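Quick one: co-fold with zinc ion.
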Amino acid sequence: MLGLKIESRSRLVAIFFMGLLCYGINAVFADVAPTGGIQHYSPVYLAAYDREHHLLALIRSYENQGTAYYLTVDSNTLVTQVMRASDVNLLLDNKVLNNSNYFKMLERYSEAPYPLVNYGLTRAGKDVPGVFLTIDLCPSHKLFEQRFFETLVAMSEKEDRPIPIAISVTGLWMIHHSAEMNWLLAQEKNNKLQIIWVNHSFHHPVKDHFLLAPGINFDEEVFDTEKLLLAEGEVPSVFFRFPGLESNQELILKLREFGLIAVGSDAWLAKGQKITQGSIILVHGNSNEPLGIKLIMPMLQADQLHLLPLLQAL
Ligand SMILES: [Zn+2]
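Sure, here it is.
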């Protein structure tokens, strides 16, 4: 009991000083993830059938307002969903997942070698008729790239479909940009944008190689952002983008244990990389890298990019 108290107290102190460093004293208490009633959040790896007899992997269990839920992954399509525990039929043995597409992808994207930068899915693994747009929302004091997002919405009117984008979101960005977050959710609700949420960690530490720095609690970096998304009524995808695209074997294997796949990029526009068919494009939507936005805007406005949902890259 005493140990627990000391641990949680030192964590609070750490959060306090980190907050001081990052945001000044006024915003300190806003940097703790509001759980939105989500409790007992934990990683699991279970097999189950839904009511239509689709084979699912259950990767998180939690309670919300007294009801038990799972975050589920369709073992064939890798589409994630939140389901009540009462709506799935648990199987005794999770080995039934071993032949699934999901298992195959988890294996493929956790294999050696482990380069420091850009490990994981960096472009389509097969022929596809377009490209994938990933938009990073690392913590930022600036308003987001409004004209860029509005251009995507305008594209949806021209193309008469919700525009598929992947947003790599951090917990801190969500907490400090609730109006912009609500705007994005409204575009999704109005079928203008089809958003895949990629977890980009909670705090997005930068110093000493991002999440590889000593003292980082990787589990919390992953789960706290998931909880925030769930509290918003959104569903985290199977994708995780490492801050700075930097990872190592230990973190990749942990990510695999959590049922997630690292997503890198072969077309980080601000770094001068070029888009080819099947590319995973990386731009920053948080106004911290205007060059990438400047480069992609004319392509979007001239309808030069056929954007595809990120799951099609697998
Ligand atoms: Zn980032």
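If it helps, The two ends are 46 Å apart (CA to CA).
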